[in-house]
Amino acid sequence: MPTESASCSTARQAKQKRKSHSLSIRRTNSSEQERTGLPRDMLEGQDSKLPSSVRSTLLELFGQIEREFENLYIENLELRREIDTLNERLAAEGQAIDGAELSKGQLKTKASHSTSQLSQKLKTTYKASTSKIVSSFKTTTSRAACQLVKEYIGHRDGIWDVSVARTQPVVLGTASADHTALLWSIETGKCLVKYAGHVGSVNSIKFHPSEQLALTASGDQTAHIWRYAVQLPTPQPVADTSQISGEDEVECSDKDEPDLDGDVSSDCPTIRVPLTSLKSHQGVVIAADWLVGGKQAVTASWDRTANLYDVETSELVHSLTGHDQELTHCCTHPTQRLVVTSSRDTTFRLWDFRDPSIHSVNVFQGHTDTVTSAVFTVGDNVVSGSDDRTVKVWDLKNMRSPIATIRTDSAINRINVCVGQKIIALPHDNRQVRLFDMSGVRLARLPRSSRQRFPNVPEKRNPSIFHPSNDCLWDEEPI
């Protein structure tokens, strides 16, 4: 009996202790509410040099922030109660099966695992709730002016890639699912050359660094190198269009657009036979690019490999293996013999061919979903985009962790970088194209066309490109 009375006394003391603890928490909460209310009343009552509109805006913003963190605080308390309940249940289970000689270490491991899951849930909730606040402050730091310059009408299906020639005459190249690649006059929008040598979708187009050669990759499992010769037409004067800046968005009317049922490219000179055909892949060739100097080319394929070719002989120099799933993109460094490949296996790889006797590879696992593209920028940076809705900027000298991370609300397609102004263009699955600087600050959003897309054109890979000479952004949409 003395033992039972002692245990009851101990239980009453513990219950009173928990009760006093809960009361102290409620008192603390009420005092915190009183303290948070005082500065606002003082701010509203005191004289201020700020204009009334600015003051009201600030009060509203801080009110929103306060409500956000109040919700987070409440969620935090609820999650802590769940953790306490779980720990009590696990402790009870441990006592019930004590006869089965369950070790304390096993019970501790089980409790810590469940606790870590709840902690991760708390972190995710916190990040999701505060991301809008953080991004809203970032967008106010800088703005870029965007202007619709020209539209290029002529393809019969979706456009997968766009590129600009690096030599004179400077022309625009587009690769399309209609099995063709077209070259355009940038100033007039006229189609200059049609390449019809592929029997599958043309997935990418890149221009030779010093000659009038184009490299195209196709769904017919080949990459073609073909020579072109164009004469630019005389540009006609055009009326100025109004500028759209920041986050403003307009709907582009299609009343005055050419009839999309007509084949605008039918009058273009047509090239049907390539200069060189690169044939070593066993699947769709999704991308191709020239190595510095233009004597070698690299291709990326859905057969999980990237191939390095000698352009003059068309011979396979290296087969780059290691990715566990289909490749999505490849890109070469503008001044060094470096190649970066991205894949659906959530990784991108950096291949180093600067030493002719040996090539090294580094694997980077910074994403949680398909890496849709990874590109080099000016200097020693790599920018990677993913279906996990993030874009990350990496330093080649230290790629253990990204130097900047951009979080978005939609998956990222094939990204591009304006080298001159260090601006990143991000085309999304939701048909938005947003501009960021290299530090992750959002600059602007490009206007969208109201024209309906082809019903058989998928939403993936809606890229944009920059004019290399005047840093003008060209927004590309399937037409």
Automatic annotation (TrEMBL):
Q: Where is this region: Disordered?
A: 1-50, 237-266
InterPro entries of this UniProt entry? Answer: WD40/YVTN_repeat-like_dom_sf (IPR015943), WD40_PAC1 (IPR020472), WD40_repeat_CS (IPR019775), WD40_repeat_dom_sf (IPR036322), WD40_rpt (IPR001680)
UniProt feature, compositional bias: Acidic residues: 246-264
Q: Specify residue ranges for compositional bias: Basic and acidic residues.
A: 32-47
**Could you tell me which residues the WD repeats occupy?**
152-194, 195-226, 278-319, 320-361, 364-404
Family annotation (Pfam families): WD40
**What's the protein name?**
WD repeat-containing protein 37
Organism from which the protein derives:
Papio anubis (Olive baboon)
The upper taxonomy is: Eukaryota, Metazoa, Chordata, Craniata, Vertebrata
